[in-house]
């Protein structure tokens, strides 16, 4: 196992670059941190490039890391790599997913220009929990490999495909495969509980302030809303996505 002590080491500088979207897109790699995320990644070792561990960190005895490249670093280096106030000193460099054809599944969440990393990660995690076949992110969304998104998603990046593509294109491809697409809107929409049982579905949720783009709503099969019983104008997009995904998932035939 290597041991790096200098903050000026070129390898340390390269690791730090992965905290930027530009470097993640350039290399196809991203950085995760913390015992929970790294332990989840260990179940998908083919996606792990390297582990980095602070000399103060104690790895769980059940972790099988003998066949992985691992580098020990000083607490100072670990601190500079961390995106949290109280880092745990455990990191991994992972490869981005090799994505399958989106048309292979029957349940998808489509996300339109959601920019808050916490909302994005929560929706990825919820889609995973609801057993969806994938999440499709349109232009203007938060980077799914942003450290805050990764923490909010709690390892769901390893469990389901996260696809980035224009949503109009995704909607057309899904409709060609007879997957009904449902938008979310407060105008000209139906109560979500009126949706009948289906064999498949795709749900489109939108920007925290502006909602789903009208051009997308015009291409859906049906648009739905969640009734508001109190004085709030709307639900948080991640909460709304959770309500709708579970309703639609439970209404599927042959679940």
Automatic annotation (TrEMBL):
GO annotation (BP), single: methylation
Organism: Bacillus badius
Entry-linked SMART domains: SpoU_sub_bind
UniProt key word Transferase: yes
CDD domains: SpoU-like_rRNA-MTase
Superkingdom of origin organism: Bacteria
Keywords assigned: Methyltransferase, Transferase
Protein name from the UniProt record: rRNA methylase
Family designation: Belongs to the class IV-like SAM-binding methyltransferase superfamily. RNA methyltransferase TrmH family.
Domain RNA 2-O ribose methyltransferase substrate binding: 31-100
Keyword Transferase attached: yes
Coiled-coil portions: none
GO function terms (MF aspect): methyltransferase activity
